[in-house]
Amino acid sequence: MPEPILSVQDLHTHFLTDNKEVPAVDGVSIELHKGEVVGIVGESGCGKSVTSLSIMQLVPNPPGKIVKGEIKFKGKNLTYATEKQMRKIRGNEISMIFQEPMTSLDPLFTIGNQLIEAIRIHQKVSKKDAKNYSIELLNLVGIPRASEVVDEFPHQLSGGMRQRVMIAMAMSCDPEVLIADEPTTALDVTIQAQILDLMRNLNKEKQTSILLITHDLGVVAEMCDRVVVMYSGKVVEEGSVREILKDPKHPYTKGLIRSLPNIRTTEQKLYSIPGTVMRPSLDQVGCRFAPRCEHSFDSCWEENPKLLKQESGRQVRCFLYDEEKSERGVTSNDKSYT
Amino acid sequence: MLAYTSRRLLMLVPVLFGMTVITFSIIHLIPGNPAQTILGETATEEAISNLEETMGLNRNYFIQYTAYVGDLLQGDLGTSLRTKASITTEIGPRLAATIELTFFAMIFAVFIGINAGIISAWKQNSWFDFLAMVFALVGVSMPVFWLALMEQWLFAQELGWLPAYGRQESRDPIDPITHFYVIDSILHMDMKQLITSLKHLVLPSIALGTIPMAIIARMTRSSMLEVMKSDYVRTIKAKGSGQFLVIYKHALKNSIIPVLTVIGLQVGVLLGGAILTETIFSWPGIGRYVYEAINYRDYPVIQSGILVIAFLFVIINLIVDLLYAFIDPRIKY
Ligand SMILES: Nc1ncnc2c1ncn2[C@@H]1O[C@H](COP(=O)(O)OP(=O)(O)O)[C@@H](O)[C@H]1O
Ligand SMILES: [Mg+2]
């Protein structure tokens, strides 16, 4: 297999809140190859956004800090990059779209102004050419009346339109990697499908690699090649989308899939995983999902489970699949509880 | 923008009406007979009825008010009881003196305040930030008269660099045109007078501008810090922009709105409340004019002074509102 275009190895990003160090991202590793769409899923608060901000070296500091790990982009280690080197990469080679289209554009400047700015930071073009290119980009992302919208202000556009503008902005310098942090969470379902379509086209036509962050497995099923499941700052499972949806291993992933609304079942009540996400802490021992897990046993409370590599690159962080520990739990071949 | 401006102008009408009602009522709200109050305990019956006659106090309120507003509309503020001169002519130069001082005090306050606020926010928790904020805290809590006296002692008396009193050299008075001496000396193309006028402005401007400067610096800093945490600033950073563009283009414009509010309020405070500074620096402004009128119970002057200050306040507010709309496209025109 060729070198991944972006690889995150053992990333630890901590936040200092109320004089307590919170390991928001606690040893995460992710690989993204050229032209690939990788999903990161997990409940809110599990560290998805912090992971993506870490890649961009945009973790708000203070209170946040990357304390350990390696982020390699095309062979360069971004954790050692200077601010100046990062500026050349941000918006140019790695672009990012955020969850909040309503607040992600500066309310006091026109759409055109903000697009032109994005273009002219990285490309030596005249204002006029940049404006024409902006209109072209707005057309490309399916904004009607692009030549008028370019002179309008963000508050004159709907959430969906603003997210299109964000995508246009992200596309403006033909990035090799697009990080989309819950790009459709704040949008209506119909708009959501259109935005996903846009990203799929970008991926197909320009071979842009996409790191798609979401808490919606439906979106993952539709868009991604591979998926990384995160829980409380750690990767708990990883594999191809087909494998994971068909045969989830980690109890948390199973819960996520069970809680997907399914029109084919007659079940009246939606399933939801009992309990809530525990705030990660440095002095916690044991599996972080144990308090919510119906299969937890002694080891789960006493030791941190390792990420077990299974056949075909699948990975799972659970003692149930650990030959030595699982005699009291369920073994990997036992599918009775799915 | 035009529609918005005219709407805002139209809204001034009831405000101005209310203002005239209040200033008109001042004289009638004093307990007892106004003419008696003005003239004092020892006044004769004849003197009282004479004054009532000249001020029209014996007519009914409605007629009095109509006459008052009618005069105002013609630019006639009445006659001073003490000097028997037209208040309109008397107040002009004093207004110019106050506006000139306020202008320079605010230039000082805004220029230093905003820049200190920006740098403090940019280098949050640095030694600059720390020093600037300590300085700002001292600035807001320092009594103006004390600062004024210290300035006079150090820069006028000890060092002799700057004049301590007045607007001009009494031996070499300026020939007034607009009564803004800086403008007048430029109109006369008199470099020496220009320098003299500016020198006279330095100490009172600093005394008057220090509190607004401190308030503006703190407001700018906190407003900038708020904006720097916003989603759109994150977007701009994610585009690959440098700090300078983030701060001086986006963050500054977004954080200026609450700062503008503060600036507007401070201008109003300076215009109306500079009596102490004007007294210490012998600055012949409107604050002192009203203050002296109060001592002499010169009610027509008190009324006019309050009206003029209130009017300036309203105008400043209008300008601030128009600036909001100019800066923020979300404000409905
Ligand atoms: N600005 C911040 N200040 C303090 N803690 C933060 C901040 N941003 C994130 N965190 C911590 O990181 C954790 C993960 O947040 P985040 O990555 O935003 O989750 P999500 O998976 O929903 O994107 C949060 O639970 C919080 O404890
Ligand atoms: Mg998030």
UniProtKB/TrEMBL annotation, chain A:
<protein>
    <submittedName>
        <fullName>ABC transporter ATP-binding protein</fullName>
    </submittedName>
</protein>
<comment type="similarity">
    <text>Belongs to the ABC transporter superfamily.</text>
</comment>
<dbReference type="InterPro" id="IPR050388">
    <property type="entry name" value="ABC_Ni/Peptide_Import"/>
</dbReference>
<keyword id="KW-0547">Nucleotide-binding</keyword>
<dbReference type="InterPro" id="IPR013563">
    <property type="entry name" value="Oligopep_ABC_C"/>
</dbReference>
<dbReference type="InterPro" id="IPR017871">
    <property type="entry name" value="ABC_transporter-like_CS"/>
</dbReference>
<dbReference type="Pfam" id="PF08352">
    <property type="entry name" value="oligo_HPY"/>
</dbReference>
<keyword id="KW-0813">Transport</keyword>
<dbReference type="Pfam" id="PF00005">
    <property type="entry name" value="ABC_tran"/>
</dbReference>
<feature type="domain" description="ABC transporter">
    <location>
        <begin position="6"/>
        <end position="257"/>
    </location>
</feature>
<dbReference type="InterPro" id="IPR003439">
    <property type="entry name" value="ABC_transporter-like_ATP-bd"/>
</dbReference>
<dbReference type="InterPro" id="IPR027417">
    <property type="entry name" value="P-loop_NTPase"/>
</dbReference>
<dbReference type="InterPro" id="IPR003593">
    <property type="entry name" value="AAA+_ATPase"/>
</dbReference>
<keyword id="KW-0067">ATP-binding</keyword>
<keyword id="KW-0472">Membrane</keyword>
<keyword id="KW-1003">Cell membrane</keyword>
<dbReference type="GO" id="GO:0005524">
    <property type="term" value="F:ATP binding"/>
</dbReference>
TrEMBL record, chain B:
<comment type="similarity">
    <text>Belongs to the binding-protein-dependent transport system permease family.</text>
</comment>
<protein>
    <submittedName>
        <fullName>ABC transporter permease</fullName>
    </submittedName>
</protein>
<keyword id="KW-0813">Transport</keyword>
<feature type="transmembrane region" description="Helical">
    <location>
        <begin position="95"/>
        <end position="118"/>
    </location>
</feature>
<feature type="transmembrane region" description="Helical">
    <location>
        <begin position="130"/>
        <end position="149"/>
    </location>
</feature>
<dbReference type="InterPro" id="IPR000515">
    <property type="entry name" value="MetI-like"/>
</dbReference>
<dbReference type="Pfam" id="PF19300">
    <property type="entry name" value="BPD_transp_1_N"/>
</dbReference>
<dbReference type="InterPro" id="IPR045621">
    <property type="entry name" value="BPD_transp_1_N"/>
</dbReference>
<dbReference type="Pfam" id="PF00528">
    <property type="entry name" value="BPD_transp_1"/>
</dbReference>
<keyword id="KW-1133">Transmembrane helix</keyword>
<feature type="transmembrane region" description="Helical">
    <location>
        <begin position="301"/>
        <end position="327"/>
    </location>
</feature>
<feature type="transmembrane region" description="Helical">
    <location>
        <begin position="9"/>
        <end position="30"/>
    </location>
</feature>
<feature type="transmembrane region" description="Helical">
    <location>
        <begin position="201"/>
        <end position="220"/>
    </location>
</feature>
<feature type="domain" description="ABC transmembrane type-1">
    <location>
        <begin position="95"/>
        <end position="324"/>
    </location>
</feature>
<keyword id="KW-0812">Transmembrane</keyword>
<keyword id="KW-0472">Membrane</keyword>
<keyword id="KW-1003">Cell membrane</keyword>
<feature type="transmembrane region" description="Helical">
    <location>
        <begin position="256"/>
        <end position="281"/>
    </location>
</feature>
